[in-house]
């Protein structure tokens, strides 16, 4: 007992009895299909012909010259169909759900990227789709709400708690409890009860595998650092996983510090959280002294989560990966910088990783290389950034 | 200390639930005494949590009211400790694992023991994870109450064999809250329990009327009601005590006749 789906002391299956058989069946199905040649080739074909994989690795020549240090490469998950890395996981999970005989998919979403990717794959594979999204996020990301509806999904604004990502997860879990037989909960990050953290990581690890291959082709060596933003942590886990055994490669996760990790307006879990058990997993969480989950804040609706995936908690505990806080202001500056310098508008989530790379690269020699995972494109954020800069444009 | 089993000694049990600190701890104290007078066999007190994922809207809102009213785990312990001399029925806490774990599981159970709480119900600690709490609970004489659900099927035997105090039978899929009818074959769930254990079984989730409570008590050892009571608390606020007392009395009568 208590040993399933652990990453060191983290992970587990802390969920209600009603859902236990569902997650155990999912675990069994995943174990069966992940080595199934037919499933693998179907998924690979979808990655290639539908999502547009492999995604490019772009050398950021002007940024490199401007910062005057390490060579900077951008892993272009923003170029995937639907504009983010989320499609990788959705194709995997929803294909698996279909194999399991499920006909209905539910999912949570923060910024809307996972919701859009889920709705997209449901349209493709002919599944019924319902998305739970915090009411505040439906306002911050109104365009994505309409996009999901256009794709045939039903969007439920969640009005409980802080009305953001955490509450969307609560509501999706509640919904799953009430309807299990025909329904799969397509969790969007490397979090929740086992097997989700492992399964979502496996569906995302293609990012790191491609980075490795592309860096070997471009530079003939491994990168010195891989940098990615972390909310729940799926794009970072996907980018990091294939490098864990390559000890020379620094793995750096960038957390959303909001107005500062020292202020209450933050979502930096590693910097400010402590050990807890929530949303099905033992991990680190932002919480008060009595274990009440803290209301967190970030300009980025996708990083606005009070916890972190259990495998990240373990990478932090063992020192294999580093986690750094990045503020709203730093992220917005990086958003503008990458747009101007390279003609690439990154998602505000990914801009957190860009911001840290801008600090790190100048401290490294010109013979060094760093890869930033551009987990998504920033079209969805343009109106919000304009507002942040004091210009009111409608979505 | 009072034992959980005592709740089932005089026939079928009626088990009311209230959220601690909703609307304030003084009202919670009066409710405990009033429900005991009205005939409650055992009382469940919810330790409010910010994100109660097994609860429907009624209890979610109660948790919000309690927390925004300033109720803390320590405040709740102190209130229970203050009233324990006047309580003759078993009291159990229902909460989520994080408020326990974050408080320090050992310290939490030690305080339960000190304050006269004889069991805990923790819906997000399933059978597979109960090692998280079971040894600590045992060390302090606190019953860790297990749950079975309509989806448990092949799991019922394993859960029932190791169950302590009483077995909480979840009547329906979904979260807590009033339901017009309960369609699960609860009798069949209990028959599976009985194949391996004679532990008392109480049925909860969705029960609000005396008829439903009677029906569920007929096929089990008792009925648990939460949302219907919390609704009365929400409606009358600090003046809720006589209304809750009336309701609990009617429910106790229905269960006794089952």
Name the features:
heterodimer, A: 395 residues, alpha/beta, Rossmann fold, 6-stranded mixed sheet, 4-stranded antiparallel sheet, 44% helix, B: 258 residues, TIM Barrel, 14% strand, globular
CATH architecture field of chain B = Alpha-Beta Barrel
The low-confidence parts of chain B are none
Radius of gyration of chain A: 19 Å
Shape call of chain B: globular
CATH homologous superfamily placement of chain B: Aldolase class I
User: What class, by secondary structure content of chain B?
Assistant: alpha/beta
Order of helices and strands of chain A: EEHHEHEHEHEHHEHEHHEHEHEEHEHHEH
Number of helices of chain B: 11
- Indicate the percent of residues in helices of chain A: 40-55%
Output the CATH class name of chain B. Alpha Beta
Count of DSSP strands of chain B: 9
Report the biggest beta sheet of chain B as strand number plus sense, adding barrel if it closes.
Answer: 9 strands, parallel
Mean pLDDT of chain B: 97
User: What is the fold named in CATH at topology level of chain B?
Assistant: TIM Barrel
Name the pair of protein chains with the most residues at their interface, and give those residue counts.
A-B, 39 and 44 residues
Number of domains of chain A: 2
Distance between the termini of chain A: 50 Å
Oligomeric state of the chains? heterodimer
For the residues shown, what is the average pLDDT of chain A? 96
Placed side by side, the strands forming the largest sheet of chain B appear as 5-4-3-2-1-9-8-7-6
